[in-house]
Protein backbone atom coordinates (compact mmCIF):
# COMPACT_ATOMS: atom_id res chain seq x y z
CA UNK A 1 0.00 0.00 0.00
CA UNK A 2 1.46 3.33 -1.11
CA UNK A 3 1.20 6.10 1.51
CA UNK A 4 2.58 9.57 0.77
CA UNK A 5 2.42 12.95 2.49
CA UNK A 6 1.26 12.01 5.98
CA UNK A 7 4.16 13.76 7.73
CA UNK A 8 4.10 17.02 5.78
CA UNK A 9 1.29 18.83 7.60
CA UNK A 10 1.97 22.52 8.16
CA UNK A 11 0.77 23.59 11.61
CA UNK A 12 -1.21 26.78 12.18
CA UNK A 13 -2.93 28.36 15.16
CA UNK A 14 -6.39 27.58 13.85
CA UNK A 15 -8.33 24.37 14.46
CA UNK A 16 -7.32 21.42 12.30
CA UNK A 17 -9.97 20.11 9.89
CA UNK A 18 -9.68 16.73 8.18
CA UNK A 19 -11.14 16.17 4.73
CA UNK A 20 -11.42 12.53 3.72
CA UNK A 21 -11.71 11.82 0.01
CA UNK A 22 -12.22 8.17 -0.95
CA UNK A 23 -11.90 7.65 -4.71
CA UNK A 24 -11.79 5.02 -7.42
CA UNK A 25 -11.41 5.53 -11.19
CA UNK A 26 -12.45 9.20 -11.22
CA UNK A 27 -9.32 10.67 -12.78
CA UNK A 28 -11.44 12.75 -15.18
CA UNK A 29 -13.30 14.47 -12.32
CA UNK A 30 -10.83 14.32 -9.43
CA UNK A 31 -8.95 17.55 -10.28
CA UNK A 32 -12.20 19.55 -10.15
CA UNK A 33 -12.94 18.29 -6.65
CA UNK A 34 -9.35 18.70 -5.42
CA UNK A 35 -8.92 22.19 -6.81
CA UNK A 36 -12.05 23.47 -5.09
CA UNK A 37 -10.99 21.85 -1.81
CA UNK A 38 -7.44 23.20 -1.96
CA UNK A 39 -8.87 26.63 -2.74
CA UNK A 40 -10.70 26.85 0.61
CA UNK A 41 -10.18 30.10 2.49
CA UNK A 42 -9.76 28.02 5.64
CA UNK A 43 -6.18 26.85 5.39
CA UNK A 44 -5.51 24.47 8.28
CA UNK A 45 -6.83 21.37 6.57
CA UNK A 46 -5.36 17.91 6.07
CA UNK A 47 -6.59 16.21 2.89
CA UNK A 48 -6.68 12.42 3.21
CA UNK A 49 -7.13 10.79 -0.19
CA UNK A 50 -7.57 7.02 -0.36
CA UNK A 51 -7.33 5.57 -3.86
CA UNK A 52 -9.23 2.30 -3.90
CA UNK A 53 -6.89 0.51 -6.36
CA UNK A 54 -7.87 2.62 -9.37
CA UNK A 55 -6.78 1.40 -12.79
CA UNK A 56 -6.94 4.81 -14.49
CA UNK A 57 -4.69 7.89 -14.11
CA UNK A 58 -5.65 8.56 -10.47
CA UNK A 59 -2.23 7.69 -9.02
CA UNK A 60 -0.39 9.92 -11.49
CA UNK A 61 -2.72 12.85 -10.75
CA UNK A 62 -2.45 12.40 -6.99
CA UNK A 63 1.36 12.28 -6.99
CA UNK A 64 1.32 15.67 -8.71
CA UNK A 65 -0.99 17.10 -6.01
CA UNK A 66 1.15 15.67 -3.19
CA UNK A 67 4.17 17.46 -4.68
CA UNK A 68 2.21 20.67 -5.12
CA UNK A 69 0.56 20.96 -1.69
CA UNK A 70 2.08 19.59 1.56
CA UNK A 71 -1.38 19.27 3.13
CA UNK A 72 -2.32 16.41 0.78
CA UNK A 73 -1.85 12.83 1.99
CA UNK A 74 -2.26 10.07 -0.57
CA UNK A 75 -2.74 6.36 0.01
CA UNK A 76 -3.16 3.84 -2.76
CA UNK A 77 -4.84 0.65 -1.58
CA UNK A 78 -3.17 -2.50 -2.89
CA UNK A 79 -6.55 -3.93 -3.84
CA UNK A 80 -10.18 -2.84 -3.99
CA UNK A 81 -11.30 -2.85 -0.36
CA UNK A 82 -14.85 -1.72 -1.13
CA UNK A 83 -16.59 1.64 -0.91
CA UNK A 84 -17.68 1.48 2.74
CA UNK A 85 -14.25 0.41 4.08
CA UNK A 86 -12.63 3.14 1.98
CA UNK A 87 -14.85 5.77 3.65
CA UNK A 88 -14.01 4.29 7.05
CA UNK A 89 -10.29 4.31 6.21
CA UNK A 90 -10.08 8.07 5.64
CA UNK A 91 -12.04 8.75 8.83
CA UNK A 92 -9.73 6.48 10.82
CA UNK A 93 -6.71 8.49 9.59
CA UNK A 94 -8.27 11.85 10.51
CA UNK A 95 -6.50 13.93 13.18
CA UNK A 96 -8.63 17.05 13.00
CA UNK A 97 -11.20 18.38 15.44
CA UNK A 98 -13.64 18.42 12.54
CA UNK A 99 -14.08 15.96 9.68
CA UNK A 100 -15.94 15.80 6.39
CA UNK A 101 -16.21 13.23 3.61
CA UNK A 102 -15.66 14.75 0.18
CA UNK A 103 -17.12 13.10 -2.88
CA UNK A 104 -14.64 12.83 -5.75
CA UNK A 105 -17.06 14.36 -8.26
CA UNK A 106 -18.35 17.35 -6.25
CA UNK A 107 -17.14 20.92 -5.79
CA UNK A 108 -17.27 23.44 -2.93
CA UNK A 109 -17.44 27.20 -2.57
CA UNK A 110 -14.15 28.60 -1.16
CA UNK A 111 -16.01 29.60 2.03
CA UNK A 112 -17.51 26.16 2.69
CA UNK A 113 -15.12 24.93 5.40
CA UNK A 114 -14.61 28.35 6.98
CA UNK A 115 -18.35 28.91 7.28
CA UNK A 116 -19.15 25.50 8.75
CA UNK A 117 -16.27 25.60 11.23
CA UNK A 118 -17.49 29.00 12.43
CA UNK A 119 -21.02 27.63 12.89
CA UNK A 120 -19.89 24.65 14.94
CA UNK A 121 -17.49 26.73 17.03
CA UNK A 122 -20.38 29.04 17.96
CA UNK A 123 -22.91 26.24 18.52
CA UNK A 124 -21.30 23.61 20.69
CA UNK A 125 -24.46 21.54 21.11
CA UNK A 126 -24.52 20.70 17.38
CA UNK A 127 -22.60 17.73 16.03
CA UNK A 128 -22.77 18.34 12.27
CA UNK A 129 -23.39 21.28 9.94
CA UNK A 130 -24.17 21.37 6.23
CA UNK A 131 -24.95 24.10 3.74
CA UNK A 132 -27.62 24.34 1.09
CA UNK A 133 -26.36 23.12 -2.26
CA UNK A 134 -26.76 22.92 -6.00
CA UNK A 135 -27.67 19.58 -7.50
CA UNK A 136 -26.33 19.11 -11.00
CA UNK A 137 -28.15 16.25 -12.71
CA UNK A 138 -26.28 14.09 -15.21
CA UNK A 139 -27.02 10.84 -17.06
CA UNK A 140 -30.76 10.51 -17.35
CA UNK A 141 -31.76 13.95 -16.17
CA UNK A 142 -31.60 17.44 -17.59
CA UNK A 143 -28.11 18.86 -17.27
CA UNK A 144 -29.12 21.76 -15.06
CA UNK A 145 -28.40 23.15 -11.60
CA UNK A 146 -31.20 22.87 -9.04
CA UNK A 147 -31.07 24.53 -5.61
CA UNK A 148 -31.61 22.05 -2.77
CA UNK A 149 -32.45 23.27 0.72
CA UNK A 150 -32.96 21.84 4.21
CA UNK A 151 -34.04 23.45 7.48
CA UNK A 152 -32.89 21.17 10.30
CA UNK A 153 -31.40 23.64 12.79
CA UNK A 154 -34.48 23.84 15.00
CA UNK A 155 -35.76 20.33 14.32
CA UNK A 156 -36.07 17.83 17.17
CA UNK A 157 -34.19 14.54 17.23
CA UNK A 158 -37.48 12.78 16.56
CA UNK A 159 -38.29 14.98 13.55
CA UNK A 160 -34.86 14.35 12.04
CA UNK A 161 -35.15 10.61 12.59
CA UNK A 162 -38.58 10.57 10.96
CA UNK A 163 -37.20 12.50 7.99
CA UNK A 164 -34.50 9.92 7.28
CA UNK A 165 -36.67 6.91 8.09
CA UNK A 166 -39.32 7.84 5.52
CA UNK A 167 -37.51 10.06 3.03
CA UNK A 168 -35.66 8.62 0.04
CA UNK A 169 -34.18 11.93 -1.10
CA UNK A 170 -30.45 12.63 -1.29
CA UNK A 171 -28.85 12.18 2.15
CA UNK A 172 -26.76 15.34 1.82
CA UNK A 173 -25.81 15.54 5.52
CA UNK A 174 -23.57 12.53 4.93
CA UNK A 175 -21.21 15.14 3.42
CA UNK A 176 -21.55 17.67 6.23
CA UNK A 177 -18.81 18.82 8.62
CA UNK A 178 -18.79 16.62 11.74
CA UNK A 179 -17.15 16.78 15.12
CA UNK A 180 -14.61 14.03 14.53
CA UNK A 181 -14.84 12.40 17.95
CA UNK A 182 -18.63 12.11 17.72
CA UNK A 183 -18.46 10.64 14.23
CA UNK A 184 -15.79 8.11 15.20
CA UNK A 185 -17.98 6.96 18.10
CA UNK A 186 -20.76 6.18 15.63
CA UNK A 187 -18.38 4.39 13.27
CA UNK A 188 -17.01 2.09 15.97
CA UNK A 189 -19.50 -0.20 14.27
CA UNK A 190 -18.84 -0.53 10.56
CA UNK A 191 -21.36 0.85 8.09
CA UNK A 192 -24.32 -1.53 8.01
CA UNK A 193 -24.88 -3.07 4.60
CA UNK A 194 -28.56 -2.70 3.81
CA UNK A 195 -30.89 -1.09 1.33
CA UNK A 196 -30.76 2.68 1.85
CA UNK A 197 -27.55 2.29 3.83
CA UNK A 198 -26.74 6.05 4.01
CA UNK A 199 -30.23 6.68 5.41
CA UNK A 200 -29.71 4.10 8.15
CA UNK A 201 -26.43 5.83 9.05
CA UNK A 202 -28.18 9.21 9.13
CA UNK A 203 -31.01 7.82 11.29
CA UNK A 204 -28.35 7.08 13.92
CA UNK A 205 -26.76 10.49 13.41
CA UNK A 206 -30.15 12.20 13.76
CA UNK A 207 -30.84 10.52 17.10
CA UNK A 208 -27.35 11.12 18.50
CA UNK A 209 -26.56 14.73 17.57
CA UNK A 210 -28.19 17.99 16.48
CA UNK A 211 -27.88 18.98 12.83
CA UNK A 212 -27.29 22.59 11.74
CA UNK A 213 -28.52 23.87 8.37
CA UNK A 214 -26.40 26.69 6.94
CA UNK A 215 -28.74 28.65 4.69
CA UNK A 216 -26.13 29.51 2.08
CA UNK A 217 -25.41 27.62 -1.14
CA UNK A 218 -21.80 26.50 -0.68
CA UNK A 219 -21.68 23.06 -2.29
CA UNK A 220 -22.36 21.57 -5.72
CA UNK A 221 -23.45 17.95 -5.80
CA UNK A 222 -23.06 16.06 -9.07
CA UNK A 223 -26.06 13.73 -9.10
CA UNK A 224 -26.04 10.75 -11.44
CA UNK A 225 -29.73 10.19 -12.22
CA UNK A 226 -29.29 6.57 -13.29
CA UNK A 227 -30.41 3.84 -10.92
CA UNK A 228 -27.93 2.38 -8.45
CA UNK A 229 -28.12 -0.85 -10.43
CA UNK A 230 -26.80 0.95 -13.52
CA UNK A 231 -24.15 2.95 -11.64
CA UNK A 232 -22.87 0.51 -9.03
CA UNK A 233 -24.19 -2.99 -9.78
CA UNK A 234 -21.62 -4.69 -7.54
CA UNK A 235 -21.96 -2.37 -4.52
CA UNK A 236 -23.27 -4.20 -1.42
CA UNK A 237 -25.96 -1.55 -0.81
CA UNK A 238 -27.17 -1.90 -4.41
CA UNK A 239 -27.40 -5.65 -4.09
CA UNK A 240 -29.34 -5.21 -0.85
CA UNK A 241 -31.86 -2.95 -2.61
CA UNK A 242 -32.72 -5.69 -5.09
CA UNK A 243 -32.95 -8.61 -2.69
CA UNK A 244 -36.36 -10.03 -1.71
CA UNK A 245 -38.00 -8.19 1.20
CA UNK A 246 -35.64 -5.21 0.75
CA UNK A 247 -38.04 -2.62 2.22
CA UNK A 248 -39.07 -4.88 5.10
CA UNK A 249 -35.45 -5.73 5.84
CA UNK A 250 -34.57 -2.03 5.95
CA UNK A 251 -37.27 -1.31 8.53
CA UNK A 252 -36.42 -4.21 10.84
CA UNK A 253 -32.67 -3.75 10.43
CA UNK A 254 -33.13 -0.09 11.38
CA UNK A 255 -34.98 -1.02 14.57
CA UNK A 256 -32.34 -3.51 15.72
CA UNK A 257 -29.41 -1.29 14.69
CA UNK A 258 -30.66 1.77 16.55
CA UNK A 259 -31.76 -0.12 19.65
CA UNK A 260 -28.22 -1.52 19.99
CA UNK A 261 -26.51 1.83 19.32
CA UNK A 262 -24.19 3.05 22.08
CA UNK A 263 -24.47 6.72 21.05
CA UNK A 264 -28.25 7.14 21.23
CA UNK A 265 -29.62 7.94 24.72
CA UNK A 266 -32.22 5.50 26.07
CA UNK A 267 -35.04 8.08 26.13
CA UNK A 268 -34.57 8.75 22.41
CA UNK A 269 -34.64 5.02 21.69
CA UNK A 270 -38.05 4.90 23.35
CA UNK A 271 -39.41 7.71 21.16
CA UNK A 272 -37.74 6.11 18.13
CA UNK A 273 -39.62 2.85 18.65
CA UNK A 274 -42.95 4.70 18.63
CA UNK A 275 -42.10 6.46 15.37
CA UNK A 276 -40.76 3.25 13.86
CA UNK A 277 -44.01 1.44 14.74
CA UNK A 278 -45.94 4.21 13.04
CA UNK A 279 -43.83 3.79 9.91
CA UNK A 280 -44.39 0.02 9.88
CA UNK A 281 -48.13 0.61 10.17
CA UNK A 282 -48.09 3.07 7.29
CA UNK A 283 -46.06 0.65 5.15
CA UNK A 284 -48.05 -2.46 6.11
CA UNK A 285 -49.43 -2.99 2.59
CA UNK A 286 -45.95 -2.91 1.09
CA UNK A 287 -44.63 -5.27 3.76
CA UNK A 288 -47.45 -7.74 3.11
CA UNK A 289 -46.86 -7.43 -0.64
CA UNK A 290 -43.14 -8.13 -0.23
CA UNK A 291 -43.84 -11.24 1.82
CA UNK A 292 -46.44 -12.42 -0.69
CA UNK A 293 -44.01 -11.99 -3.58
CA UNK A 294 -41.24 -13.65 -1.62
CA UNK A 295 -43.30 -16.76 -0.89
CA UNK A 296 -44.48 -16.89 -4.49
CA UNK A 297 -40.83 -16.96 -5.58
CA UNK A 298 -40.19 -19.88 -3.23
CA UNK A 299 -43.08 -21.90 -4.61
CA UNK A 300 -43.43 -20.99 -8.28
CA UNK A 301 -46.29 -22.48 -10.22
CA UNK A 302 -45.21 -25.39 -12.38
TrEMBL record:
Residues 18-184 form the Glycosyltransferase 2-like domain. Gene3D superfamilies: Spore Coat Polysaccharide Biosynthesis Protein SpsA, Chain A. CDD domains: Glyco_tranf_GTA_type. Coiled coil: none annotated. It comes from the Bacteria. This is Glycosyltransferase 2-like domain-containing protein. InterPro entries: Glyco_trans_2-like, Nucleotide-diphossugar_trans. The lineage of its organism: Bacteria, Candidatus Tayloriibacteriota. It comes from Candidatus Taylorbacteria bacterium RIFCSPHIGHO2_02_FULL_45_35.
Amino acid sequence: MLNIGADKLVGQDTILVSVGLPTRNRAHLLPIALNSLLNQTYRNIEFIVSDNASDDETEKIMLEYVTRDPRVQYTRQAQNIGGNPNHEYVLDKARGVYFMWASDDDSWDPLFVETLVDVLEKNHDYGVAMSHYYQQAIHGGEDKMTVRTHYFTNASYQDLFWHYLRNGKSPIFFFGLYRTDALKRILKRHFKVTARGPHLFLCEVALSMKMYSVEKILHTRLQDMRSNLERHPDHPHTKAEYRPLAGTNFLFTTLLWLLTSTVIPLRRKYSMVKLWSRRVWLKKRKIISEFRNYFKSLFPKS
